[in-house]
């Protein structure tokens, strides 16, 4: 009967631990990136029964390891570009202040005042790969502004009226300092004897450049379809400009109103950072006020082969039990999955399953308690018999 009490106590301890696992799961039902766990039970050792009959009697319940369920949770929209979710097996790689690597599925990140991408909860650095494939901190420290790029080529499209002198205005040229200059191009058709068009470039009323343009049967002559000239912005060095008429430009007589217009130009002014996000491959994409985008480091992801290679560390973090069993890589490659910006992965806790397990655990605990009570009553009865 004393052995029965001991067996009942192992049940109380085991189901108490099981209840704790269920409680931890249910309380973290809204924790981003949380992975539910379950407690493993097994029977304890056995020994021969009294009297040497050869029968075996068990010694109760044994509590084994806790296993993590890494089934992917639902991905939910947040509207924050730096909230990231992995659709796949990959886990974000973090490095704490002591240099130790951790992993998480809760991609709630922010850029700190130093321009480094950090985990919002503990400020550990989010790690990525640079262009050389080295593991580095993801930083925008030198990318908060986008420098100006001077215009070198301007392309044109549509028809140049062949019947009269035409002037095209609002030709914006960006200089090396990011300044904007509004130029105009005056096109004078050839005389009665034919020949090239004469082109004069004006900045205000000042002539700043000249060139010639040749058409054959209404189409640009490839040998004279580009005008290359040197522009001298005030206070700056010489800037070589190419005005390209070789594609999508014609010259036919029309109503006297030219349709010729600038199509593209490759210069832009300096810009400031307006948006930071990540694409599906985990590449940092920076957008600037001048319309330019720049790509930075790629997020470093880790993945494990079996659940035995990972252990929960708290704070939505996981640690590797064996670093050699982990694989490192980037999104878009194999089982690592893809990145979704503006989303987070919520807990994978199945509340209905937890409530079902709660009922079973409660009944197991009650049954173990009843075993102890029954064994105690039997002992009391035995002592009473001895007392008589």
TrEMBL record:
All copies of domain Flagellar hook protein FlgE/F/G-like D1, residue ranges: 85-141
UniProt xrefs under InterPro entries: Falgellar_hook_FlgE_sf (IPR037058), Flagellar_FlgE/F/G (IPR020013), Flg_bb/hook_C_dom (IPR010930), FlgE/F/G-like (IPR037925), LlgE_F_G-like_D1 (IPR053967)
Top-rank taxon, per record: Bacteria
GO CC term, one of those recorded: cytosol
Keywords from the UniProt entry: Bacterial flagellum, Cell projection, Cilium, Flagellum
GO biological process: bacterial-type flagellum-dependent swarming motility
Domain Flagellar basal-body/hook protein C-terminal: 341-382
Residues making up the signal peptide according to the UniProt record: none
Cellular localization per UniProt: Bacterial flagellum basal body
Gene3D superfamilies: Flagellar hook protein FlgE (2.60.98.20)
Predominant localisation class: other
NCBIfam families cross-referenced by the UniProt entry: FlgEFG_subfam (TIGR03506)
Described function: A flexible structure which links the flagellar filament to the drive apparatus in the basal body.
Family: Belongs to the flagella basal body rod proteins family.
Entry protein name: Flagellar hook protein FlgE
Species the sequence originates in: Duganella sacchari
């Amino acid at each position: 009967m004393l052995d029965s009490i001991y067996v009942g106590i192992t049940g109380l301890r085991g189901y108490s631990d099981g209840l704790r696992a269920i409680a931890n799961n249910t309380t973290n039902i809204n924790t981003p990136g949380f992975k539910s766990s379950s407690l493993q039970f097994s029977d304890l050792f056995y020994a021969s029964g009294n009297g040497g009959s050869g029968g075996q009697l068990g010694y109760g319940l044994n509590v084994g390891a806790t296993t993590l369920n890494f089934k992917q949770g639902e991905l939910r929209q947040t509207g924050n570009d730096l909230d990231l979710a992995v659709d796949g097996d990959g886990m974000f790689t973090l490095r704490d202040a002591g240099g130790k690597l951790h992993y998480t599925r809760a991609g709630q990140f922010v850029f700190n005042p130093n321009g480094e991408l950090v985990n919002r909860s503990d400020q550990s650095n989010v790690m990525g790969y640079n262009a050389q494939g080295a593991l580095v901190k993801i930083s925008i420290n030198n990318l908060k502004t986008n420098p100006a790029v001077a215009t070198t080529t301007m392309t044109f499209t549509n028809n140049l009226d062949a019947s009269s002198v035409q002037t095209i205005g609002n030709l914006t040229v960006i200089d090396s300092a990011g300044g904007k200059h509004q130029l105009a191009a005056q096109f004078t058709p050839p005389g009665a004897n034919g020949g090239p068009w004469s082109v004069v470039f004006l900045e205000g009323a000042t002539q700043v450049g000249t060139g010639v343009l040749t058409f054959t049967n209404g189409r640009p002559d490839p040998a004279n379809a580009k005008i290359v000239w040197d522009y001298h912005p005030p206070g700056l060095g010489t800037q070589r400009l190419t005005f390209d008429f070789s594609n999508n430009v014609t010259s036919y007589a029309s109503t006297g109103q030219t349709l010729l217009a600038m199509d593209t130009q490759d210069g832009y002014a300096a810009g400031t950072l307006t948006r930071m996000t990540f694409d599906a491959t985990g590449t940092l994409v920076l957008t600037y006020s001048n319309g330019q985008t720049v790509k930075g480091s790629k997020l470093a992801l880790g993945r494990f082969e079996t659940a035995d290679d990972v252990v929960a560390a708290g704070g939505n973090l996981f640690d590797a039990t064996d670093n050699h069993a982990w694989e490192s890589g980037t999104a878009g490659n194999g089982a690592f999955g893809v990145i979704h910006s503006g989303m987070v992965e919520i807990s994978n806790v199945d509340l209905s399953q937890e409530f079902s397990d709660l009922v079973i655990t409660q009944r197991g605990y009650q049954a173990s308690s009843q075993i102890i009570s029954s064994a105690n009553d039997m002992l009391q009865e035995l002592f009473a018999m001895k007392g008589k």
